[in-house]
Amino acid sequence: MEFTDEELTSMVSENNEDAKDVLYAKYNYIIDIIMAKYKKSIYALSLDYSEVKQEAMVGFTDALIRYKDSKETSLPTFISVVVERKIQNCIRKADTIKNKVHNESYSLEQEYEVFKRPLEEIIGDNRKNPEVQMENHENYEELIKKINESLSPFEKDVYDLIINDFNYHDIARILNKEPKQIDNTIQRIRNKIKDLL
């Protein structure tokens, strides 16, 4: 008997290992796509590839447990987003540790001859004003809401993957569609967003 992804994820949330194995066999290629995307970063930071892949597997399992069909996104899209965030966090953590000493070696108060002013002024953010931050956040949230309302369910899946830095070939593989169809969908999404701006 064939089960839908929703039925299988429901079974996973009830600790059914067989359902988890079925979904892993069906969607484990997503992990390979995302790992390939971050391969250079993993090696540049001297991370253990197998440890990062293990983190990706944890993300995959988290996605299966947390997925609800009411999320208005497909399971492959949700898995992709969760796994990618898990890998990004792993890389970000390693990068922070590796660069901590390097970043602490610059004085913010020292006036640098090249710039004729202190580093503090160069990298300072004048957007720290809480009122400006709140207004920017509200405008951003409103725009995201309008974008989501204007997209079809399929366009929403593609959009979610685009904003998580997947290229259209990877999106086509994840969503099991032709690259040309994804390219056309991306053009429609861009046009809809342009109309909102």
How is this structure best described in words?
The protein is an all-alpha fold. It has a domain of 105 residues. The chain is 73% helix and 2% strand. It contains 11 helices and 2 strands. It has a two-stranded antiparallel ribbon. A hairpin with a 4-residue loop joins β1 and β2. α5 crosses α6 and α10 crosses α11. The chain is globular and about 70 Å long. It starts with a helix and ends with a helix. The mean pLDDT is 81.
Quickly list its features:
mainly alpha, two-stranded antiparallel ribbon
Indicate the topology.
Layout: H1 5-13, H2 17-27, H3 29-37, H4 39-44, H5 49-66, H6 75-103, E1 111-112, E2 117-118, H7 119-123, H8 130-150, H9 153-162, H10 168-175, H11 179-196
Antiparallel strand pairs: 1-2
Helix pairs in contact: 1-2, 3-6, 5-6, 9-11, 10-11
